[in-house]
Amino acid sequence: MKHWFKDGVFRAVLRNAGYLGSTKLLGAGLGLIALIAAGHALDPVTFGILMLVHAYALGAGAITKFQSWQLIVRYGAPALTRGDTATAKDAIRLAFGLDLSSGLVGMAAAMVALPFLAPDFGIDRDHLALAMLYCTLVPTMSAATPTGVMRLLDRFDILAKQQMATPLLRAGGAALAWAGGFGFPGFVVAWYVADICGDLILWWLTVGELRRRDMLDGLRPGLLGTARRLPDAWSFVWTTNISTSLSACWGPISNLIVGGILGPVAAGLYKIATTLLDSAGKPADLLTKGFYPEIMRLDPSSKHPWKLALRTGAIAGGIGLLVVLLIFFGGKPFVGLFGKKYLAAYGLLSLMMFALMISMATFPLQSLLYMVGRQRAALAAEIAATALYLGALAAACHLFGLNGAGGAYVLGNAALALFMLLPVWSSYHGRARYAPAPA
């Protein structure tokens, strides 16, 4: 491994992940504090409904949003490397236009559909009004333009500081709601204020960074005319959007399925387990955010990006193994922090933790497919794995209850890794055809 660190790109990936990780772990801890406060202040049914309201807004945003940050990096990173700021600004304009339109559509669709879907998701009439209010967060939740700009401009240090805002505000609001006895409305307000303030802070920082680089006019939203100046932009937008949106909605949609079949109490337990897994899997997320911009600057016909993927995947997989051991030996007391009434979540967590190691070790696969222009193969893999997972989740919940949900989660992650690995393997052996054309 000492030889790996001679690679400057490898060091850059770890450096950027380190920036984000320096505050992400603390943010995850603050997020758990907010859940612990809600778990102690609310009964299991109301706690489950709070998780369902948040999951519904996240799911609506995940389904309708475009992965605009990937668009910005895909077209902007090579452009800035050769000094072409006009193309980079076009990528930002198209991303902003997509975020604006999809966010408003997603909010409207979520609010219209909620009264009809609420009974099936376990949200009763008494909490429907607050759930409708929460849907107004969809436009800011689903906007990825500021994140893409910061990654494009290599300002991971700013992102690291900003990502503390939402969990810090949520933990403070949850503690206040618990101490003041404000009940369910107080926790909804705490979650709402934390989300919107964190997003607005990121937008403010992005505007300042673009102004400093004389690129602020890149925040004029554009769609059709802008897309025509970016080759194959719509193909990239639609395929990557559907693929990553499917991935992003796994958590919220699965939580809604569990709640609809097994009830709000089971949904709350499932949310605790998935939240702990998400927190434990943050190292892979951080490596992904540093890995994708770097490989977009490399030659896919060389072995360099493929070796980089193996090295970062090996490090993430090793971290995943350590996390599994920590969960095995120390997970039960940790779950007990939520309250003894939620200890049943540990059995679910001990089953689902094996999916964590799989997903962490295989995180570079999707980025590799995007690098070689095979985003449709990534989409096909995501569709197949999602269909298998959601179908298995519904069937397993009916047959085996909450433990069945955990087994379906492991199956879904294993299937996704396999479906991604097959086209990556074929792309590596045919990498000569991805050589850049001569100038």
TrEMBL record:
It comes from the Bacteria. It is found in: Cell membrane. Keywords: Cell membrane, Membrane, Transmembrane, Transmembrane helix. It is a multi-pass membrane protein. The chain crosses the membrane at residues 51-73, 94-117, 129-153, 165-183, 308-331, 343-365, 377-401, 407-425. Its main location: membrane. InterPro entries: Poly_Biosynth_Transport, Polysacc_synth. PANTHER family: INNER MEMBRANE PROTEIN YGHQ (PTHR30250:SF31), PST FAMILY PREDICTED COLANIC ACID TRANSPORTER (PTHR30250). This is Lipopolysaccharide biosynthesis protein. It comes from Sphingomonas oryzagri.
